[in-house]
Each structure stands twice: as C-alpha cells, then as structure tokens.
Amino acid sequence: MIFFGMGFIGILFMVLFWGGLIGAIFPAQNNRLTTPQPLSTIEIVKQRYARGEITAEEYREIQQTLNSQ
Q: Among 16, 31, 62, 66, which residue's Cβ finds the most Cβ atoms within 10 Å?
C-alpha cells in the first residue's frame, strides 16, 4: 500500500488540495503587500511643497481651494 492505503488517486487529490490552498493564500498576501495605495490630492500637494516645487503661498492657495470643494 502506498502512503497508508490512500493509493495514487488519494495522493493526487491531497497534492492538488494543498497546492491549491497554498497557491490561493500566498499570491493574495504578496499582492496586498506590494500594491501601493493611491495618494490623495492633498498628499500630493504636501509632497510638492516639501520638495520645494511650490511656495508656501501656492500651498495655502491650493489647500484653500481643495477645502472649499
């Protein structure tokens, strides 16, 4: 008897079951960890201000415009 009486078909189904379960779990976790979240508009403006691409006056003006919408 092969592997305690399961036979070839039993072993095949066991391998398919565990392979499918592991294959379903790992890609889902990997995708969740590597997918960047989109930035909000205000976060983009904050980053541009931090890099010096816009002045403090432009930053305040954009912030007021975004808050009024």
A: 62
